[in-house]
Design goal:
This is DUF305 domain-containing protein. The chain is mostly helical. 63% of the residues lie in helices and 3% in strands. The chain has seven helices and two strands, in the order H-E-E-H-H-H-H-H-H. A hairpin with an 8-residue loop joins strand 1 and strand 2. The N terminus is likely disordered.
């Protein structure tokens, strides 16, 4: 019986040894796998070196329909944009030409009077106003001349309107103003420039009433408003001195 028991114990020992060896072999294989694999992250997907094309908006359709309003009582019509002609130049009439051709010499005389203020005048507010007149009416003359040139006209296109240019000062009056100094000059300047500005306002109102050109209408409106404001400022400056 003792011999049988010894054989059983020896057999059980061999099975235990085999189980332990098998476990060690599995563990060693796992360690080797970990050491061989560089990391546990999945391999990144292959990307192309060429960037995806950017979709740009296309050019506007030159044939897109444009709605054209019809005459009163008529339906609107549509035309392709590439079949539309440029808008015609706003028409002008004799009143527009008369205003432009008269306002150029009218402004030029205002500049002559305004240039005298710096050396002959005494009131500092009037000197500031004179500078503003120079800064405004000089460029306006160029705009008026460009308007004539753009239409194939010149200063003589409106005829001789010198007798109708309200507010224009005589040569004798300009000589008296040039000879004056100090407070006397300031008083004469305000009186003459007020009369001169009022003449420009009257011509501007006439152009607004009778003229048809959009540009002339804007210029005439500017003359009426701005020179009316300057008349009040000149009177206030003289009263405060």
């Amino acid at each position: 019986m003792l011999g049988v028991r010894i054989r059983e114990l020896l057999g059980r020992s061999r099975r235990l040894v085999l189980i332990e060896l098998t476990a060690l072999a599995v563990l060693a294989a796992g360690v080797a796998l970990v050491i061989w694999w560089p990391d546990g992250d999945p391999e990144p997907a292959t990307t192309s070196s060429t960037p995806a094309p950017i979709e740009l908006p296309g050019l506007p359709d030159a044939t897109a329909p444009v709605l054209m309003p019809g005459r009163p009582g008529e339906p609107a019509a549509s035309l392709p944009a590439n079949e539309m002609s440029a808008m015609p130049r706003p028409p002008h009439n004799n009143a527009d030409v008369r205003f432009v051709t008269m306002m150029i010499p009218h402004h030029e005389q205002a500049l002559v009077m305004a240039r005298l203020v710096a050396e002959r005048g005494e009131n500092p507010q009037l000197k500031i106003l004179a500078d503003r007149i120079l800064a405004a009416q000089g460029p306006e003359i160029k705009v008026l001349e460009a308007w004539l040139t753009d239409r194939g006209l010149d200063r003589d296109s409106g005829g001789d309107h010198r007798h109708r240019m309200s507010g224009m000062q005589s040569a004798e009056a300009l000589n008296r103003l040039t000879a004056a100094r100090g407070a006397e000059f300031d008083k004469m300047f305000v009186a003459m420039m007020t009369d001169h500005h009022q003449g420009a306002i009257d011509m501007g109102k006439e152009a607004l009433t009778l003229g048809s050109d959009v540009t002339v209408n804007e210029l005439a409106g500017s003359v009426v408003v701005e020179q009316g404001v300057e008349i009040n400022r000149m009177r206030e400056a003289l009263a405060a001195s």
